[in-house]
Amino acid sequence: MTCFSARNSRRLITATLALLSIPYSLTSFADEDDAFNILAGASARYEDNLFRVEDGTPLGNASKHDWVYTTNAGIKFDKVYSLQHVQLEATVTDNKYQENDFLDWTGFNYRGAWLWSITPRLTGTLVASRNETLNNFGDFRRIDPSTGGSRNLRSIQTNERREATADFLLWGGWHLVGGVSQIESRNSQSFNEVGDFTQDSAEFGGRYVFRSGTELTLVQRESKGDYNRPLDTLQQFDTGYDQSETEAKLDWLVSGKSRITAKLAYVDREHDHFKDRDYSGMTGLLAWRWIPTGKLMINTGLSRNLYSFQESNAILFGGLPAFRAGDYSYSYYVADTFTFSPVWAITAKTSLRFRYDYSDRDYRGDISLVSPSRRDKVQSAVLTAEWQALRSLLVSAEARYEDRNSDRTGYDYDASSLGITAQLMF
Questions:
Q1: Measured on CA atoms in the order 184, 105, 381, 376, is the torsion positive or negative?
Q2: Rounded Cα gap, residues 132 and 415, in angstroms
Q3: pLDDT digits over 334-357, tens only?
Q4: Among 121, 131, 61, 125, which residue's Cα sits nearest to residue 97?
Q5: Are strands 105-119 and 122-134 parallel, antiparallel or unpaired?
Q6: Model confidence over 128-171: pLDDT tens digits?
Q7: Which of 29, 50, 305, 356 is the most exposed place for a label (fewest CB within 10 A)?
Q8: Which residues contact 320 (CB under 8 A, 6 or more apart)?
């Protein structure tokens, strides 16, 4: 973990003062009860290992350390019309890097939702959202041909989701539930491990709501995915897949201060052409939210998930694909994750948040049968302090540390960052 120099400390102090010097006249128009609000914000963050690499890794002309300056502006609309509830939020975010300006990018995010109700017995949602993020450098690693060095290229991932759900109250606590959704995911740079895809899904099931507020839900979900790439028989990169998921979920209201969420599901993914890429298994979640006092809330959780992550280093040998010892050719990984996240409301205007995550990732589905084992242990800790300086001005400061210990050579890293953010709503 790299310590700040005096120069970097002065930069952080200067950025802090700049963020806090927003004119009061702008905030005087804010009203949280207004249906329509304008959002504006700015942040400054120092990264000591921006590209998530080991010490000594060549980065070409790039800099391992950097200051990231972010500004955003947007709108928010939230209003109830009788039984209907309409929500809309859209923001434009500009990201500037002081040293690695080739990473500069501007993102547009939005979420629109209609929480509809024909009668109190028949309700549902219509939701459309878009989210743009910079791909995680821990996994997205490419050679920059312009420099010849192992500098990471910028890759922006855009995820769009459209969803419609319905809930029909039959009698007592019995409900019929169902929905359809579509997810589109695109990367600005080629990234086979998590390729561009479109997934269409439909689900149907039932839910029982007890008088205590506890809910038990069972759904069957069927999905069809299409990758935006040609069929690659050499590296076994497919054009599509079918996925089936059976899920049972319990949302148990233990008391007014305690809630337990438990989920158990079985996932089965089959690819169109290459069965070696198929995978299946159990996933689950056990989470507990506890509010021991009026000022303290504690969230803890254990989860298991399966994630598609396709690699292949196949070469042609005698016209046929061949693999070499040491190649990595996995199809997915299993992530077992523990989360601990307390929130302390120190006063009516100040709060302190902490979040710790530990994930054990086991890479599986080797199509070559000669890949060395890969096991990643990833952990992160984030401490956030929030101050409601004015009714419409929220100031927060964040310290973050993360590291990865991997069986894969060159994939260990540790990284830390410090940042401050000011967000206006008027």
A1: positive
A2: 23
A3: 999 999 999 999 999 999 999 999
A4: 61
A5: antiparallel
A6: 999 999 988 888 876 453 443 444 578 899 999 999 999 999 99
A7: 29
A8: none
Nearest to 92 by CA among 165, 42, 50: 42
Give tens-digit pLDDT for 300-340: 999 999 999 998 876 655 555 555 556 788 999 999 999 99
Contact status, residue 235 vs residue 265, Cβ threshold 8 Å:
no
Length of the chain: 426
Nearest CA among 2, 64, 12, 83 for reference residue 43:
12
Supply the pTM of this predicted model.
0.87
**Both structure tokens of 98:** 């002081």
The full set of domain ranges for the chain reads 1-190, 191-373
| Helix, strand, coil % in the chain, rounded to nearest 5 | 5, 60, 30
Of the candidates 134, 138, 135, the residue with the CA atom closest to the CA atom of residue 54: 138
Q: Could you give the CA distance from residue 39 to residue 72 in angstroms, rounded to a whole number? A: 8
Given a cut of 60, whether residue 125 has pLDDT beyond it is yes
**Contact by Cβ (8 Å): 58, 149:** yes
User: Which pLDDT score is estimated for 151?
Assistant: 47
Residues 134 and 189: their CA atoms lie apart, in Å, by 11
* Sole residue written with tokens 């050679």: 143
End-to-end CA distance of the chain: 39
